[in-house]
Amino acid sequence: MKPTKNRKFCLGCQRPKMLFETKAKANNFIKFNSPEISANSHKVPKRSYYCPFCCGWHVTSVESERAQACEEHDQQMLDAIHAINHPKAPCDAQDKSIESKLKNELNEICVRIDNTIAQIESALIHAETSKLCTKFEQLLELQNKLHAKSNEFDIHGDTIAKRLEKIEKAKATFLFVYDYFTDKDKRQEYLSRLSDEEKSERTNIMINNIDVIDQINERFDEIKASESQSGTCEKIEGLCSEITNVLMPKLIGVTNKLKKYFTGKIEGIRTSLHRAQENIDTFYDGLLQMIQKYIEQAREAINANDIALCEQNLSRAENLLPDIVSEREQDLYDQIAQLRVLTVNSISGQAG
Predict the structure, then answer these.
(1) How far is CA 122 from the centre of its chain?
(2) pTM as predicted
(3) How far apart are CA 196 and CA 222, in angstroms?
(4) Residue 152 main-chain phi, psi, to 5 deg
(5) Which of 189, 197, 226, 332 has the smallest set of CB atoms within 10 Å of its CB?
């Protein structure tokens, strides 16, 4: 029997062939039809094989030893068809270099975004207004770069999505907290309404630190204004103590660097006060010594009966004599008074 049924055109053989759904059906065809086929043709099916082109089973008279060459031929044809239907994008060394460069650029942008967000949070905690604005502008630039790169190369993975989400959260925090930077009354009214639990929230810690640092800076401004005034040492020392003992303990989560900055500034003010006081003491001591010198010169003059010179030196001593605040000033005052009595007595004696 010559095969006439189930004939399909096979791309592999480039001619019509019988197609069987299973290997068993193909083998049964060989078993029951080979004798009749051999009587009418020299091509007698001897084996079955699976055809990847037809997705079924054929029978063939080709010997097994030739089967490998046929299969290789079929595979080559399949590869060629697949290449036509699914063309591969060229992937040479230059393409790999571009891909690697793009990946590095995206990674660098993501790292810079993470660092900038951390710096913004630090600036908010430490109330660094100028740094905060600069870093926020940098964050917006990085966001635009990330959008541009991801859209240009159609890259939208989890890493990029997470960074964009972090940026939006940082922007929301910035806009919320920054609103309280310049409005002191609004800030203090907001803080006064917070519960103890709410005060521990990160954004509220930032607003608290803004208020405390603002108060500290106000005290420093007051100290600076007082430094040019006399008799303000006690006031300045009181302001320094308030900053150190009252305001600084209210700061939450700030770095030691900021605390050291405030502490160092206060130490500098106190050192200047100490030096100024030393200078005042030195000057005052020199003033009292000069008064004592005029008194001695007045005493020598009266002993020499030079009343005019004595009066001159006593007047100089009296003009320099400060208010009596200690035994030293009292002693000088008493010496001048005694010499005044002697002067009057000498003038009376000369008149007699």
Answers:
(1) 5
(2) 0.52
(3) 31
(4) -60, -40
(5) 197
